[in-house]
Structures
1.
Amino acid sequence: MTKYIFVTGGVLSSLGKGITAASVGTLLKHSGKKVGMLKIDPYINVDPGTMSPLEHGEVFVTKDGAETDLDIGNYERFLDTSYLKSSNFTTGQVYSSVIERERAGGYLGQTIQVIPHIVGEIVNRIKQAGKGHDILVVELGGTVGDIEGLPFMEAIRQMKHDDEVAGTFFIHVTLIPYIKAAGELKSKPTQHSVQELRRIGITPQMIIARSENGLPKTFKKKLAMSCDVSQESVVEALDAASIYDVPMSFLRQNILKPIAKELELGELEPDMEEWDNLVKKIVQPKGRVVVGFVGKYLALKESYKSLTEALIHAGAHLDTRVEICWIDSEDIEEKGAEALLSDCDAVLVAGGFGSRGVEGKIKAIEYARVNKVPYLGICLGMQLTLVEFARNVLNLEGANSVEFDENTPHPMIYLIDNFLDQSGGMQLRTHESPMGGTLRLGEYPCDTKEGSIIREAYNGEKTIYERHRHRYEANPAYRKQLEEAGMIVTGESNGLIETVEIEGHPWFLGVQFHPEFTSRLQTPNPSILAFVKAAINLP
């Protein structure tokens, strides 16, 4: 039977529950345990797919095509594992399932209530996610005391007494504020947060104390006593030079000892040598390279979380600090590409939705193409490479994507009416279709062309597999014109254009997929690794 570790948060949000959960999972995995990860989000949205990146951060896409919370990305990057849609669920999904079952008569006329029906559905989903694993690490979104989180708290409380559960361990991530005027660390917010948990019926067995300052032994002792945990179960979580150093910090504090003791896991000795070496190269690399990152959601950098992390992974393996020069594509429209990109070693144009900032991205692409600067265009970044090439090389006036101009005389990017989904079934998508239901989502194969940049990046693999999240496709009607002028299609998926390159350019690649979704610290994505190599002129 599966054992469960529950990670809750107190005092305030954004304390790093996701990194904590991922770090604990990483240490357990490197100890030889089969570890599953689950993120529970209390919001009522069915998934974050239609939520603004500026509000919620990046939408992470799983291998099986689920639009999930960005913490699933942290789990994959830390544990070097592909998780599925069962690794994330929301209040919206829980209530939808219960209501659908009630409408179908599945409850035999019972009055549907939060307890037992909603809570029962939550427990069932947690157990389903735990199947096949020695340990499931469960992160509860939100903060203790949030009204929407109460059914989830009740669910994990009940699991302490469930005969189908082999053991439970509760970790509480909390803030230890430092009052500068008094020169003191304060434990009271944590005490109140733990009291709220205990009122619900949950007694945390470990406190992860987020603090800007180290905790003195006397303070740790006081915290342990007031929160009713052992002193060895108070773990410092100080600001780290890299999030990937957090597992090493936890390991130095023997975090696994109380977990192993409570869950009867035996002696755990994780092999973290390779991990530690990569972290050292992130913190103190030998080289440096500057990538001009052209995007439109720069007000919240977490909109591009997977992509910025993928650049860090590539840099770690090349012993190089990848410095990101953030460039808002709307600024390029005002100031020009050269003014903002001339100091960059390479140009990356990221994905996005909507027409805002598109012309700036096109100018950035033109700059990279004309000046022979290494270039990587991802999703919309690839689509706009076709638009830029059509306008400036093929001289097709008014060339555009139908996403931005439905009446364009040259639809380089169009909305394909029928496309094959992951299971091979035919799907229909139109301009009137719901935004959340007509995206090409998840992992698809891509057949690469011999001698291409993309095939070389993937070590000669003919067929590669990458994840998608988009509605529009490159229009094959213009393929012949493009290729005759020097833009070559080097990757295809079921007849759809997946990757393009430019003849005579030292390194220019546009990809329809999102390579960042499969990049991990220990196994960086090949196309992003090759891009960074090109930026630092490595063979």
2.
Amino acid sequence: MKRKLSLLAIAIFVALLPIMVLRDYTPSNELRYLSIADEAIEQGNIFAFTNQGAAYADKPPVYFWYVMLGKVLFGEHLMWFLSLLSIVPALVILWVMSRWTAPWLDERTRISGALMTMCSGLFLGLAVVLRMDMLMCMFITLALYAFWQEYSSEGNSSKPLWLFPLYTFLALFTKGPVGVLVPILSALLFCAIKRRWQTMGRIFGWRFWLVLLSGCGVWFGAVYIDGGADYLNNLLFHQTIDRAVDAFHHKEPWYYYLISVWYSVAPFSLLAVGVVLLHWACRKPMSDIEQLFSVIIASTFVMLSVFSSKLAVYLAPTFPFIIFLALLFMQGERVKRWHRIAVTLPAAIFALAPVAALVAPHVAELPIRLSVTLWAAIILLGAGGLGTILLVWRRESLHAATDALSATLLAAAFVGGMALPQLNPEMGYGALCREAMRMAESHEAEEFFTWNIRRPENMDVYLGRDIVQVSTAEILSGRCNGSVVMLSKRHLASETELREALDSLPATDTGGYRTIYIPTTSE
């Protein structure tokens, strides 16, 4: 089994390698994290961070330390190095879940479960984007596995008693309160349901509080020294209690996750979520491991729904448990007709991908041209979808079909990833900033301005200096003379006066943006 899991991990890594190497940073979060790390290195901060000079207490320091390490080691930010902190934790989660469920699921089923988990839409996305969520999910999974080891061993070893609080603290130290709440709430509720009060006492005994409180004490003390009382108050209260009670970001209704779970676990949501909900509704008897997985999913779901701030990625710690709980429920049962339909529907969507790609340009203007590489990825999706449908209805087991659907996604990701150099100008600011630097060097310009570009402040990662956002009136008044200006072509199309004023100037288009050097009046 170890050999097969290792081969699977290598195959997944290779499939995602083009995305990890060729992709540009997204402006919304990734570029901001790099800018925060650059400021921390420049200012010598370790525990208190700033973004464009303003305090940034949203996230604990672990992820930023890794980003800073990469910059110190290589002298620049490298996508492949930063991506390792997403893909490696994802593979660790697959290994833990496979090992955890080995007593109940056969090898074939666990391999399928690992593939289904990896290729669940949002889990796959988190495995390649630069976020701390996957690292937190890994520590939560390890913490819950340590809890299970203590529960099932009935106190025969003290090792899980140290590992459970250690992994719980690391989950907190990686992302924040959700990292500590998920394992604690799950363990408490499960022990209460099973009436294992002695186990609860051992798990939450002196070792737990020693590790958790000492870790938090050192962290918060260092934050106070590095950032002062205001930063510590921001970290402990504004970013936790305020977000939970009345969010200033990502505020959503209580039923948000009832909707998001279906696209988050796609293309396996109809099967996995459907199996779990039906089993719960029928109140069928459950083993201890099935009860624990159920408690983890339900308690996390309810807790996150109560919080005011909501994002689909917050539910990510439950995704592996949803998939593997569904497989536990299905183990030994006959495959039902609706199971096959639940796999057929997403496979049919894949099969229709080439048709959709042919029709789309006639319905709306596409932001990119479908290159040969993209067409190859789309055709792979279509062929994989058709193959999956055939396997669904010709095989006794669903494993071959779910494996085919997963392999289709990974193959399409590998081939489609090759097209990222073409797509990067539309996704990020790397190509735009390189053109702006080239233009600035040729004209000996020192300042960079942006007009109607979303979140441009973190372009300093590329340009090495602050970016100034200007209005139409400022450009027309001569504020930007002798400088390079980066503009949104979409917004420029509706600004007649500005467009006419800039039409005679040399310009370069990069994706949806235009770079212009505005000469001084003496030039």
